[in-house]
Amino acid sequence: MSASAELKRITTATLQKLKSSGEKISMLTAYDYSFARIIDEAGIDVILVGDSASNVMAGHETTLPITLDQMIYHASSVVRGAKRCLIVVDLPFGAYQSNGDIALASAIRIMKETGAHAIKLEGGEEVLDSVKRIISAGIPVMAHLGLTPQSIYKFGTYNVRAKEEVEANKLQKDALIMQEAGCFALVLEKIPAKLAKEVTKRLQIPTIGIGAGGDCDGQVLVMHDMLGLNKDFNPRFLRRYLDLHQQVTTSVSKYIEDVRSGNFPNDSESY
């Protein structure tokens, strides 16, 4: 049994112990009570209530439209379903970029109104003031570097980030800045595996990779992607563990057939 499985509640300190012992950290997104309960009971270390809810739950093209109120709704649902894992909530676009006061107010709302354990935000030195303000209030912060989806219109593409030396150097600098500011972990998204390995070795805090190779201290995927609910998203880093899209389609089709034929409900399913 792993160190994380022996504990009743995963904390930020647990993640640090896992890094120190060389045990990998598992993280998945969730957005509702039912899936959060299943994932938590399966033994996941961290649930991320991601702003990817904007895509997979609301059908938006990007993560930008989702609001703080909507993130609080999803996070509250997840907290009610998960009893053991660490729950991290994304600060949505516009909730922290402008200044530290707004960032702190947004983070406080999430912590007070959801019962979650930490927040995550995107960016490096440019959001340092916000990070410091939030951490100074006693709120744990997970940082996020590399491909940062809230900046998609700045990048103009979802291609791999930090392939060039200048951007790679900035990412390494930002990673150290976030650690020094007090962040408890760092997500590295869609960057070269060699760079992710270097950052992971330099940092004392855990790194969580998505499209960043196997040398990060942990991995995260969007739940809808790894369960095969979203069949149109096919990046190289995604491994599908289930074809739930096909299974649901088959089940619904069978239900329709049974209703139309009069086979459902049968006598044993009636009062």
Features:
eight-stranded parallel barrel; 2 domains; TIM Barrel; alpha/beta; 271 residues
Q: Give the CA-based shape.
A: globular
Approximate helicity band: 40-55%
- The H-level CATH homologous superfamily of the largest domain, spelled out, is Phosphoenolpyruvate-binding domains
Reported for the largest beta sheet, the result is: 8 strands, parallel, barrel
Strand order of the largest sheet: 1-2-3-4-5-6-7-8
Q: Structural class, from secondary structure content?
A: alpha/beta
Question: What is the succession of H and E elements?
Answer: HEHEHHEHEHEHHEHEEHH
Gyration radius, in Å: 20 Å
Number of helices: 11
CATH class of the largest domain: Alpha Beta
* Total individual domains: 2
Mean pLDDT: 95
Could you please describe the fold and organization of this structure?
Helix content is 42%, strand content 13%. It has 271 residues and is an alpha/beta fold. It folds into two domains: 4-240, TIM Barrel (Alpha-Beta Barrel), CATH 3.20.20; 243-271, no CATH class. The protein has an eight-stranded parallel β-barrel with strand order 1-2-3-4-5-6-7-8, surrounded by seven helices. Helix 2 links the parallel strand 1 and strand 2 (46-49). The model has no long low-confidence stretch (mean pLDDT 95).
